[in-house]
Write a structure and sequence with these properties.
6-stranded parallel sheet, 37% helix
């Protein structure tokens, strides 16, 4: 059984404010640790439940939010967005999706960082009903025959998702600052919450026969309400029907509808013909940037229950020549591994030729 752990970041244990989800900030570096810990517990649960293979797919912003070298080594990591199938890439091999750290739909009041697919929308309607990412993503995955069987995140986000995924196992995550900045009480909450992630993920995998691919019968009518008319004008390069801030389109199924949503959001008419090399180069850039060039983490007094050094090999011999050598070797090895993942060539030959 091949289980995929898809991960956002907003609904992670330990995260309570938007800056911790915003790529490139010191607070985001702390948020990456939180996300990685959550993912590792879900990966462990997937194997506990009987998975033979587990792949981690990072879906927040451009991807590469996880601390890749801190992930459970039994899992395969896939970062960034792809062209075919749109957004997720090769997914037909997966038997079950476990979706970690989700958030509420655009327009949800009193929710933590609510948005649907991209932050430019004030709300998204499908056949006249407000929808969130789980409605769209699970509907898209369902047309490939893949069920979403697990979700974790803020209470309102989980509630919204369970309306369309009633069979899914779920874990609710607190989004209040005091939950994560209260010393021993916070450490106890993090330990218990992440243990629940592992146990619930195992239950989801064990119950795979009860999970159902979500299929939304067509025809489908999408309405994307932008935050301003200026945004709607800027993003609607495809000539979809537009009334001030609202852009509309029709689709026979979710595959078609999701393709048009991504055209509207990410692939303007001007760049559509070169979207494949752009996506490839973007994955390359962010894989390297987020792996080797990141800010020092700022936890803002939060508890880091399972904190591990972000610079492996240097803390055990701080300031010593041996520690520096160990760190340099580890750094070099991680660069080589990243290049092997990115380029379909024999990178060892290139390295030997340039030494």
């Amino acid at each position: 059984m091949h289980v995929a752990v898809f991960a956002d970041i907003d609904g992670s244990f330990g995260i309570w404010r938007m800056r911790q989800c915003r790529m490139g900030t010191a607070e985001w570096q702390y948020g990456r640790h939180c996300l990685t810990e959550d993912i590792n517990h879900v990966v462990g649960g997937a194997f506990d439940g009987g998975a033979d293979r587990v792949t981690v797919k990072d879906t927040h912003e451009i991807g590469f939010n996880c601390l890749i070298d801190k992930l459970d080594p039994r899992a395969t990591y896939v970062g960034g967005h792809f062209i075919k199938p749109i957004f997720y890439g090769d997914i037909e091999q997966y038997d079950l999706i476990l979706y970690v750290a989700i958030h509420a739909a655009s327009g949800t009041e009193d929710a933590f960082f609510p948005h649907t697919h991209y932050g430019v929308f004030s709300q998204m309607l499908l056949n006249g009903t407000r929808v969130g990412e789980m409605d769209i993503y699970a509907g898209y995955l369902g047309e490939f025959g893949i069920p979403v069987g697990f979700i974790s995140g803020e209470d309102v986000a989980v509630e919204q998702a369970l309306r369309v995924l009633p069979w899914a196992k779920s874990v609710v995550v607190d989004k209040r600052k005091e939950t994560y900045t209260s010393g021993e009480k916070s450490r106890a909450y993090l330990a218990a919450g992440r243990q629940e992630l592992r146990e619930t993920a195992a239950q989801a995998v064990q119950a795979i026969n009860d999970m159902q691919p979500m299929v939304m019968p067509g025809p489908l009518h999408f309405e994307a309400e932008f935050r301003s008319i200026q945004l709607a004008d800027r993003f609607n390069t495809w000539g979809f029907t537009q009334q001030e801030r609202i852009v509309e389109w029709d689709a026979d199924n979710m595959k078609e509808g999701f393709e048009k949503l991504n055209k509207l959001t990410f692939f303007s008419r001007r760049i559509y013909s070169v979207r494949r090399p752009i996506s490839f180069l973007t994955r390359c850039y962010y894989r390297l940037k987020n792996t080797y060039f990141y800010p020092k983490p700022n936890s803002e007094s939060a508890e880091l229950l399972f904190l591990m050094s972000l610079l492996p090999g240097i803390n055990d011999q701080t300031g010593s020549r041996l520690g520096i050598v160990r760190y340099a070797n580890s750094y070099y090895a991680r660069i080589v591994e990243s290049l092997r993942d990115i380029f379909p060539c024999d990178i060892n030959c290139l390295l030997m030729e340039n030494r």
